[in-house]
């Protein structure tokens, strides 16, 4: 390694170090439940980066996202990086419970995206989800945060979440138990490739990047929205998104 290359490497490490601490400060400040002295120091760090707010007020730039979701988004990256640096890998199953919960909370934001942007262009789906007895399938439900968010946004919907990770489902059941929509959310250990339900679903959420090819059929839009496989909704002709 030449002197110049070493200098560049040290500069990069210093910049990445600052970025990591900035993410940690953002997570702590957005969460709002840290010790006062640490929260004050975190706010000072964010202020140095140009992100300022008066004590006790929300940080600017949150948009429609709740502070807790921003905190989880910032923390999730740190948890994943910590797992990789510690040699535990970056796969879902190798993450700590804190990382799984943080990533789940980030995913919950997608329920708002579906309601705000996808429903208006998906025919009569909005009306069906507003009707008593509506059903939604959350494939790869993980810690259940998205399933709960769907149930909260659509008060008539019964949500079934499936996942192959018993560990994540244990965390999901804990989250469901303390949510206001828990009576309408059920999770179970199930592989979507072997899933069938005669009653069908009005909407199926499919995490396309994480599903094997045989579990998906139909067209895709930017790798995200696809026709729902008939094994998911054989009778309902359901829409699906991921």
Task: Report the principal-axis shape.
Answer: globular
| CATH architecture verdict of the largest domain | 3-Layer(aba) Sandwich
Strand content: 5-15%
State the end-to-end distance. 45 Å
- Over the alpha carbons, how many angstroms does the gyration radius reach? 21 Å
By CATH, the superfamily of the largest domain comes out as Vaccinia Virus protein VP39
Q: How many domains is the backbone divided into? A: 2
- CATH topological fold name of the largest domain: Rossmann fold
Describe the fold and architecture.
The chain has 242 residues and is α/β, with parallel strands linked by helices. 45% of the residues lie in helices and 11% in strands. The protein has helices spanning 3-31, 36-48, 67-85, 97-107, 109-118, 125-129, 145-153, 166-177, and strands at 135-139, 158-163, 185-189, 203-205, 220-221, 225-226, 239-241. The strands form two sheets. The chain has a five-stranded parallel beta sheet with strand order 3-2-1-4-7, covered by helices on one side. Helix 1 packs antiparallel against helix 3 (67-85) and helix 3 (67-85) packs across helix 4. The longest helix is centred in the N-terminal third of the chain and has 29 residues, at 3-31.
What distinguishing features does this structure have?
single chain; 242 residues; alpha/beta; Rossmann fold; 2 domains; five-stranded parallel sheet; two-stranded antiparallel sheet; 7 strands; 45% helix; 11% strand; globular
Fold topology:
Layout: H1 3-31, H2 36-48, H3 67-85, H4 97-107, H5 109-118, H6 125-129, E1 135-139, H7 145-153, E2 158-163, H8 166-177, E3 185-189, E4 203-205, E5 220-221, E6 225-226, E7 239-241
């Amino acid at each position: 390694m030449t002197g110049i290359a070493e200098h560049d490497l040290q500069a990069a490490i210093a910049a990445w170090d600052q970025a990591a601490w900035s993410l940690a400060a953002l997570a702590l400040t957005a969460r709002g439940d840290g010790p006062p002295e640490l929260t004050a120091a975190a706010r000072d760090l964010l202020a140095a980066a140009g992100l300022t707010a008066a004590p006790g007020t929300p940080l600017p730039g949150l948009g429609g996202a709740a502070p807790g979701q921003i905190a989880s988004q910032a923390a999730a990256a740190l948890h994943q990086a910590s797992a990789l640096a510690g040699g535990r890998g970056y796969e879902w199953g190798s993450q700590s419970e804190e990382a799984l919960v943080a990533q789940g909370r980030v995913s919950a934001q997608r329920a708002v995206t579906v309601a705000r942007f996808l429903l208006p262009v998906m025919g009569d789906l909005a009306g069906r989800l507003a009707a008593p007895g509506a059903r939604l399938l959350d494939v790869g439900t993980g810690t259940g945060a998205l399933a709960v968010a769907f149930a909260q946004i659509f008060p008539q919907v019964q949500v079934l979440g499936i996942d192959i990770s018993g560990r994540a489902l244990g965390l999901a059941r804990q989250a469901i138990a303390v949510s206001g929509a828990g009576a309408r959310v059920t999770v179970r250990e199930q592989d979507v490739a072997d899933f069938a339900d005669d009653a069908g679903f009005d909407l199926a959420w499919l995490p396309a990047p994480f599903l094997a090819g045989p579990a998906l059929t139909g067209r895709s839009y930017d790798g995200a929205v696809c026709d729902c496989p008939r094994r998911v909704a054989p009778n309902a002709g359901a829409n699906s998104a991921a």
